[in-house]
Amino acid sequence: MPPDDSLNAVLYRALNALNTLTAQTTDDPLHSCPSSALLILTTYPAALLKLAHSKIHSYPYSEVPTCWRRLYTDASVREAIRVIRGDVDGGKNVERGCLNGINASMNGTEDQDRAGGQKRGSGGGGWGDEKEKEKDWVQEAVRLLDMAVIIAGAPRREEMVEEILGALQNYVEKQELDPGLPRKKRRRGEEDGTFPMTEGKNVPEIRKPIPTVSNMSMASFEKHLKTGSPLVIRDALTHWPALHERPWKSPEYLLKRTFGGRRLIPVEIGRSYTDEGWGQKIVTFREFMDGCLLHGLPDEPDGQAAPSSSIGYLAQHDLFTQIPSLRNDISIPDYCYTDPPPPSPGTPLASKPPTPKLDEPMLNAWFGPAGTVSPLHTDSYHNVLCQVVGKKYVRLYAPTESEKVYPKGVEGGGIDMSNTSEVDVEDVDPVRFPLFEKAEYVECILKAGECLYIPVGWWHYVRSLTVSFSVSFWWN
Amino acid sequence: MELYMCGFNAHHQLLDQDRHHNDDVAGFERVYRAPGIDVRCALWSSTVIDIDGTLVHRGFRPSGLGPVVIEGPWPRNIRTIFGDTSGVLGALSKNGSVYLFTDDMYGSKDPGFKKHHFSEDSFINRQNLSIEHLAIADNGEFCISTNMASHQRTSSGFSSPLSAETPRVQLSIPTAKLEIHTFASFEEFLSSEPPTSTYSLFSPLVSLLASATCFTALTVTQEVLTFGSALHPQTLGRSPTPSSPAEKPCLVPFLGGIPIRKIAVGGWIGAAVSEDSDLYIWGGQAGEAKKVNALPRPSDGAEVALVDIDGGVDVVDVGVGSGHILALTRDGKVWVTGEGEYGQLGTGTKAFEEDWLQVRGEWEGKGRVVEAREDDPSLRASPTANSHDLFKNVHRDREIIRVTTNFDENIPDEFCDFNITILGTGAGEPATARAAGRTSVAPLGFGVTSLITTQ
């Protein structure tokens, strides 16, 4: 396989930064790692992935010493580079002539350790696994780089990861290694260019609608903020490319934006995070779409969504930092640049320490099949929830109703769950929660192109009625 | 005796620099042969092995690689050697002294254990405590078990209500003030900082071990206590409740009523072998893609699983590393499961083994396991002998013949040439002697597995 200059150039620059610049950067937390670990960073980064992964999981995420996150990141990038170059130059050949001696000068001891060209430790798989990974070295490189972002946050290497992924994607597309979407089964909607949008039978009737407005100006919204009540706003997203020329409702487009579906995302498995057996998995975008989103509904006799074992939800994930090209398909609503009121006195959030002010709004992606549920809870920010694809049923309870929605307490592990309700909104146990039916609420079915303003401290319950893709903007 | 090891070798903690490069070792290789061998400490980048009364350090030291002898107290007087990812940190002697590991001691080349003197206002001295056990977890938490130093000690054994065989322990009578203290780090322990928490113990400990985020202790009453971070409750083998929070040493309910002989922990996994030779395991990291099938499943509601290997044969020993488990059965077979990416399963491949797999090796086929209890009168050479010393001496010289013939009646002739060895670290573990199919499991480390044979 002939070498590609731009990919080589990016890798060259990356290795230079990893080696030389890192040594010169005295305030890099990486230097706080034990010497025993740093000693093998150039020669055996795969082992350090394992070590750093264990260390990261030995602390609550906010308390993980940065040295371990830095170690995981740099080891991941080095291992990814090794995987890429291992195949860019055509395999295990020790000579690696195709890369014009770059290897010889940059690798130093690395080649000496590779007596006989034997590969070692490719990111934690068995020798059987190694063969699989070599076949799909592109996916393995993407996996390593995405894991650095998802597991460790890739401190100090965010741009480097983005650059390498971009160059790799260009390389792959140019080499025509990517034959487009494999034409396995014709799934419903793929030939139409959109996700299947059929609804199940369980569509709630809206009896207490949230007030709706169209074309609301920033000034009107600022006025509305004082009422402290929610609002559905139409026509606020008319200019979003995600709704028009770069449609997120097209599986093909999303796959393209996620490097042929190779990018990794954290997916929640199970009906809701308050259920037992709920868990999180890190899978490729392709696996997520194939497994959860490209189901046909008419096959199901009762019209329900796919069985709960295949309900996966890409929930509350900062997809847009991970994949900046998707960020360009949306824009932060003007409403998020207002100065909203703090939690009202007498409500649960008011008695807690105040949340620090955000410098800019926090974006989160919410993408999943019909039937995903976010159980009744509050957030500590104001929220504009923008619906891009599909429909969601949302029910809201005011902070003044908090007693009637039975907030949880502090759980056994010392975790404060008081922002989550005990009640399953669409399956209420009247014996355990007698006051709930008296709680006042408002509701809506949020459709593509609409947004919902949820004031801080308002309890909200969300269920997707179809395949749904939403973006939430938190601010304060 | 022979020591076989396999696994992570990037710091030459397994094999010599000359013989092998620092590639991982995927099949068991014989590392040492000596009259006496005991693996005292298995860390991420180094291993400390007692070779015939000398402590040998293999692996990474700031002053270089290559095996080297550690100067300091005799290995027989050391209860525990401990360390972390950076290497060996120190040792605890049986009389409660803490030693710090120093590289380049006295200006000579060899590293050594240097006794640490606590300041007058340190927690240890203020409370006049004697340290009996210590352990350090992967998240840096440091734990000690203590007793009041002023009480008289006795070296006679005492019988516990639960079982007839109980190891000899140091016990102050009649009022023992047994406690567990945890510190945020080893450094804080050495300084004058008070512990972050203190709990009372109802009985002295036989062993205190640490894994990624929690501590596991075995009492002389053969019960298992776990305590530590609530971050991964499954590693505690119990579900924390407000009255039994994660941080408080509490009994593992599933093991209630089952006398436990040995515990072993590593990573997010814990294991216990009962007097009835059953193996119990718990834990497993949440959310990992590959799972050891033998571990309990949270969806089943189980906190601890009884292991069935090979149709339910007796398990006589166990070792747990950072992500793998090794079980030794009565018929002398070695079974492994879990992570193998450094070859630590000894299977010759680097594959993850979801299920138990038997591993073959040079050590095997030499006979069946025969047990000999410490309080077996036929073993006592003299009334004042320290049982540990008896056994250690036994395999060093010809006295072995004399001892084994002492319990001829209990052991068939064909086993009479067995050596007797102590299982476990030899540091405060139940001093049950076992002629164990000539094999025992030494503490497993991060991606490293060690087997000791008595041949």
Write a compact overview of the structure shown.
The complex is a heterodimer of chains A (476) and B (455). With 476 residues, chain A is α+β, with helices and mostly antiparallel strands. Helices cover 30% and strands 16% of the residues of chain A.
Describe the structure.
Chain A: It comes from Lepraria neglecta. Chain A: This is JmjC domain-containing protein. Chain A: InterPro entries: Cupin_8 (IPR041667), JmjC_dom (IPR003347). Chain B: Keywords: Repeat. The complex is a heterodimer of chains A (476) and B (455). Chain A has 476 residues and is an alpha+beta fold. Chain A is built from 14 helices and 13 strands. In chain A, strand 1, helix 10 and strand 2 form a beta-alpha-beta unit. Chain B has 4 helices and 33 strands. About 22% of the residues of chain B have low confidence. With 455 residues, chain B is mainly beta. Chain B has a single domain, classed as Regulator of chromosome condensation 1/beta-lactamase-inhibitor protein II (Methylamine Dehydrogenase, Chain H). Classes of the chains: A alpha+beta (476), B mainly beta (455). At the A-B interface, helix 2, helix 3, helix 7 and strand 4 of A face loops of B.
